[in-house]
Design goal:
Layout (H helix, E strand, L loop, with lengths): L8 E5 L18 H10 L3 E6 L11 E4 L3 H10 L2 E5 L2 H9 L4 E4 L4 H4 L5 E4 L26 H9 L4
Parallel strand pairs: 1-2, 1-4, 2-3, 4-5, 5-6
Length: about 160
């Protein structure tokens, strides 16, 4: 018998810190709008965690501004899963034992990720040579990231 999947509550943290040089952070995933649309079309609830007045992703109906670590911990505990880039959320989620999807571009998930998360890396050839250098020397490049349908598929595995 076919089991109907219930909608998930998904927390997203789409951005990394603002670069000092004013350029787009190379960690920022460029296809959030497609991911969010696909997830919402499947009746999931998507909540964006917002820092420093970052722009909401198109289609987001629930936007929660960072006000304290306690607020973020509550959001992490209350969600079914999360999607994030390489920022602080995967570290907090690891500590809180919440599993989710982390989208990687130029930083190495074997150094900075956790094995319990679904770590999505398009290709190791895009990893930067000096993983511990500042990000200001890197340029934003959308081709280093996995396609939106790969992210959506990975998230759907948490709802099974």
């Amino acid at each position: 018998m076919f089991k109907e999947r219930k909608p998930m509550k998904i927390l997203i943290a789409p951005y990394s810190k603002v670069m000092r040089n004013g350029e787009e952070n190379p960690k920022n995933y460029p296809y959030w709008t497609d991911v969010v649309k696909s997830l919402i079309d499947k009746d999931n609830i998507v909540i964006q965690l917002q820092f420093n007045n970052e722009k909401p992703i198109d289609g987001i109906k629930s936007l929660v501004a960072y006000s304290s670590l306690k607020v973020v911990e509550t959001l992490v505990d209350d969600c079914d899963t999360f999607i994030s880039i390489d920022n602080f959320l995967p570290h907090l989620a690891h500590y809180r034992k919440k599993y989710g999807v982390v989208i990687w571009g130029k930083s190495d998930p074997t150094l900075f990720g956790y094995p319990e998360h679904t770590n999505l890396l398009k290709d190791r050839k895009y990893l930067r040579a000096h993983q511990f250098e500042t990000w200001e020397a890197e340029t934003f490049d959308p081709k280093v990231f996995v396609e939106p349908q790969i992210v959506v598929g990975a998230v759907e595995n948490y709802g099974v």
